[in-house]
């Protein structure tokens, strides 16, 4: 069963998504949050598999809440994936959410037909980007990947666990091998890799390996 928290400042939207997802046989809604503070608190308490996160909320917005969840709601073998769901497709919201650690980005108009599938995808460690902005996202993430003063890829935005996964990727293990090395499940490994792809602007695992070497994290 996929356990989900929904965070949105509009009660009608929260309730509608809860009904939509709750009708699925493999999804259970375990919490409803009206702002980022509640979303983080529920993640700490409930340890859901996925948070469906609005961006524009009072106080702590969805981007900052995503950043806190990526940092604070991570167990040894349990990572909460964030699926950002918003009416906004402008660059600041889009790239801010993905750089903060979101595994997916969906526009609200697509939710009725695609939300459950997107939740399943990110719960399994994959990533989901709304098709209407996918091309722009991938290209811009690659072009704007952070670099340090020497021009090498910057890894400052990565968590300690993400750095560990990136370092191990230098030896090109499979997901199953990584899971065994880290004593975690394959879905947890997939989520870490998904976040690494988003944060570094990489297209695939081979580019992540290149980032590990170019940044100096892994020595030839």
Structural notes for this entry:
By secondary structure, the chain is of the alpha/beta class. The protein is built from 10 helices and 8 strands. The strands form 2 sheets. The chain has a 6-stranded parallel beta sheet, with helices on both faces. α4 links the parallel β6 and β7.
- Count of distinct structural domains: 2
Main β-sheet, spatial strand arrangement:
2-1-3-6-7-8
Give the overall average pLDDT: 86
What's the Cα radius of gyration? 17 Å
* Envelope shape: globular
Strand content: 15-25%
Distance between the termini: 42 Å
The secondary-structure class comes to alpha/beta
For this structure, what is the CATH class of the largest domain? Alpha Beta
Contiguous helical run count: 10
Query: In the CATH scheme, what's the topology name of the largest domain?
Result: Rossmann fold
Topology, element by element:
Layout: E1 2-7, H1 11-22, E2 27-33, H2 36-46, E3 50-53, H3 62-72, E4 74-75, E5 78-79, E6 81-86, H4 91-100, E7 104-107, H5 111-123, E8 128-129, H6 134-143, H7 160-169, H8 175-182, H9 186-200, H10 205-214
Parallel strand pairs: 1-2, 1-3, 3-6, 6-7, 7-8
Antiparallel strand pairs: 4-5
Helix pairs in contact: 2-3, 3-4, 7-9, 8-9
Short recap of the structure:
The protein is α/β, with parallel strands linked by helices and 220 residues long. It folds into two domains: 2-141, Rossmann fold, CATH 3.40.50; 145-214, Arc Repressor Mutant, subunit A (Orthogonal Bundle).
């Amino acid at each position: 069963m996929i356990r989900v928290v929904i965070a949105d400042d509009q009660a009608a939207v929260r309730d509608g998504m809860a009904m939509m997802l709750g009708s699925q046989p493999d999804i259970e809604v375990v919490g409803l949050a009206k702002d980022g503070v509640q979303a983080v608190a529920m993640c700490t308490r409930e340890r859901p598999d996925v948070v469906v996160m609005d961006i524009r909320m009072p106080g702590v917005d969805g981007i900052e809440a995503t950043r806190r969840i990526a940092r604070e709601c991570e167990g040894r073998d349990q990572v909460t994936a964030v699926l950002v769901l918003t009416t906004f497709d402008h660059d600041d919201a889009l790239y801010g959410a993905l750089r903060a650690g979101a595994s997916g980005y969906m526009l609200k108009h697509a939710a009725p037909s695609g939300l459950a599938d997107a939740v399943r995808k990110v719960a399994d460690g994959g990533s989901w980007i709304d098709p209407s902005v996918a091309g722009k996202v991938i290209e811009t993430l690659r072009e704007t990947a952070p670099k340090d003063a020497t021009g090498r890829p910057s890894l400052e935005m990565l968590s300690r666990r993400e750095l560990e996964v990136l370092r191990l990727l230098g030896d090109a293990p499979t997901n199953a091998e990584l899971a065994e090395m880290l004593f975690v499940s394959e879905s947890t490994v997939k989520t870490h890799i998904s976040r690494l792809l988003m944060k570094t602007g990489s297209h695939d695992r081979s580019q992540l390996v290149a980032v590990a070497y170019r940044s100096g994290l892994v020595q030839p």
